[in-house]
Amino acid sequence: MGLDGSLGYELSNLFSLKTLDLSSNNLHGSVPYQLPPNLTYLNLASNNFSGNLPYSITNMASIEYLNLSHNSLSNQMGDLFGNLNSLSELDVSFNKLTGDLPNSIGSLSNLSSLYMQNNQFTGSVNVLRGLSPALTTLNIANNNFSGWIPQEFSSIPDLTLGGNSFANGPAPPPPPFMPPPPQRPRNRPKHPQGQGDAPKGSESPTIQSDKKQGLGTGPLVGIIAGSIVAALCVLLLLVCCMRVQKRKDDTSSETKDFVGPLTVNIERASSREIPEQSLENSSIAAVKLPHPEKMTPERVYGKNGSMRKTKVPITATPYTVASLQVATNSFCQDSLLGEGSLGRVYKADFPNGKVLAVKKIDSAALSLQEEDNFLEAVSSMSRLRHPNIVPLTGYCVEHGQRLLVYEYIGNGTLQDMLHFTDEMSRKLTWNIRVRIALGTARALEYLHEVCLPSVVHRNFKSSNILLDEEHNPHLSDCGLAALTPNTERQVSTEVFGSFGYSAPEFAMSGIYTVKSDVYSFGVVMLELLTGRKPLDSSRERSEQSLVRWATPQLHDIDALAKMVDPALNGMYPAKSLSRFADIIALCVQPEPEFRPPMSEVVQQLVRLMQRASIVRRQSGEELGFSYRAPEREGDLRDISF
């Protein structure tokens, strides 16, 4: 067809597409992270694609034919094939792929043809040995494979192995089975019976001598059974002793402070002001509870409603499902505040006048095997204390329900303020926008560099930044990454639902680190700068992705002035704008190692605010209203600072 350029990034919306053949064109760039999820046939061969194999391949459960050959794909393949049970032909030949073969490729039970020649793969090919019953064609020539050639390969009709560093000859057979010699009893039976089925010549001299005077099958089974019963009795006695001792320890430790799974880096925290916000106890349905900061809950409700003991100390207040139903009016639509990746959030009005927010965890969003994992996450989240983080004040684990109770922040989200109406976005002056960036940067700095171990947010976006009446930011959903999500739900919500904020390394390989949070923070700063959404399909194609459109213009002062949110009405200082853009450019670097730590971002934003304060004092006017962007290009020099 002679196509040129790169593929779009919203292909995942093509749910009905089954066959996609774009082979033999001049397409370049990365293979899109978002591929049509229901494809059965995908051919991108003979183009100029580069970079990694996209992580979204793992979600293409119906794919039968996948051809990415004759491109410039590089790096390791990644464990992408665990869900591709229908795949019958895979061709990644003539690329620059490196590293060992992923374990998941050995799970392709229906694979009949595999072409991997002319790459730079290394290591053993043993992971492919289980494919031989169905595999009819295997070409792994001209790589850097080493080790023995599996014997199972001899049954593959079309096999090409040349150009590797395999050891000469077939793989050696596994060592023969060597059963341990049976123990001799004090009174041997007069008529010994069968001694086992070890092949002749494989026994050691000890075993051969025992063949004449060994145990019969019956006595041997009796000895083994007796040993097992004795061991179980000892084990049961130990468990009983441990439970008694633990009950004593729990009773004696109720008045002591605890050290949980989340600690604070005192050395770093000493240089900051992190006020300890006390949690007030709510009286609910006449249930009296001790002060949450002094409480170590002894028991919570299990899945079937029965009481069970917890293993972790929790500072948050335990609630009952009944009390939360009353406070949210049975989780009615009128109480709904929003919906996230793990469930819906409701406003809760309690009889004592206290207002909180309740997140009702969707059971389909988690793959928890037991409540302990949830309670450990609650224990850690309840001890996150920072003025720019929404505190967790309570929780509920009862009758199979899991709910989280947060402090209520009632002025909406940053996403609402920026994108809902022009009137709302006009309230966000330049000074307020910089302050929001600084507050959320401090929240991430606390999670990444003060908490031990570091807490990765994993879902940083403008809809998770809540604003109070004075437009101070409060970051929500902190610590929720500790809850193990369902794999399919994770891909759909984190890659597709929040795609505009996802760092390249997560979209391509599923890797997510603190530096991925830094990238997402840079995207939010771009929203503050431009007033645009991270992804906007209503705009022309070249401007739909905010990062792709804005990044090349961040160091162009003329283009930068045109990018600014029109809601600011030109009221911003030019030098402050330029420094703000410089921070963004660092945060959205494609390579994570080149992104700065959040402590460095905080320092730069603090310096930007300090310079703004000096100018405000000199001018006697409020920043954000003192400096109107010039109508003429030459006037820029006159208002910058």
TrEMBL record:
<keyword id="KW-0433">Leucine-rich repeat</keyword>
<keyword id="KW-0732">Signal</keyword>
<dbReference type="InterPro" id="IPR003591">
    <property type="entry name" value="Leu-rich_rpt_typical-subtyp"/>
</dbReference>
<feature type="compositionally biased region" description="Pro residues">
    <location>
        <begin position="170"/>
        <end position="184"/>
    </location>
</feature>
<dbReference type="InterPro" id="IPR011009">
    <property type="entry name" value="Kinase-like_dom_sf"/>
</dbReference>
<dbReference type="InterPro" id="IPR001245">
    <property type="entry name" value="Ser-Thr/Tyr_kinase_cat_dom"/>
</dbReference>
<keyword id="KW-0675">Receptor</keyword>
<keyword id="KW-0677">Repeat</keyword>
<dbReference type="InterPro" id="IPR046959">
    <property type="entry name" value="PRK1-6/SRF4-like"/>
</dbReference>
<keyword id="KW-1133">Transmembrane helix</keyword>
<feature type="transmembrane region" description="Helical">
    <location>
        <begin position="220"/>
        <end position="240"/>
    </location>
</feature>
<dbReference type="InterPro" id="IPR000719">
    <property type="entry name" value="Prot_kinase_dom"/>
</dbReference>
<dbReference type="GO" id="GO:0005524">
    <property type="term" value="F:ATP binding"/>
</dbReference>
<dbReference type="InterPro" id="IPR001611">
    <property type="entry name" value="Leu-rich_rpt"/>
</dbReference>
<feature type="domain" description="Protein kinase">
    <location>
        <begin position="331"/>
        <end position="608"/>
    </location>
</feature>
<feature type="region of interest" description="Disordered">
    <location>
        <begin position="160"/>
        <end position="213"/>
    </location>
</feature>
<keyword id="KW-0812">Transmembrane</keyword>
<dbReference type="GO" id="GO:0004672">
    <property type="term" value="F:protein kinase activity"/>
</dbReference>
<dbReference type="Pfam" id="PF07714">
    <property type="entry name" value="PK_Tyr_Ser-Thr"/>
</dbReference>
<dbReference type="GO" id="GO:0016020">
    <property type="term" value="C:membrane"/>
</dbReference>
<dbReference type="Pfam" id="PF00560">
    <property type="entry name" value="LRR_1"/>
</dbReference>
<protein>
    <recommendedName>
        <fullName>Protein kinase domain-containing protein</fullName>
    </recommendedName>
</protein>
<keyword id="KW-0472">Membrane</keyword>
<dbReference type="InterPro" id="IPR032675">
    <property type="entry name" value="LRR_dom_sf"/>
</dbReference>
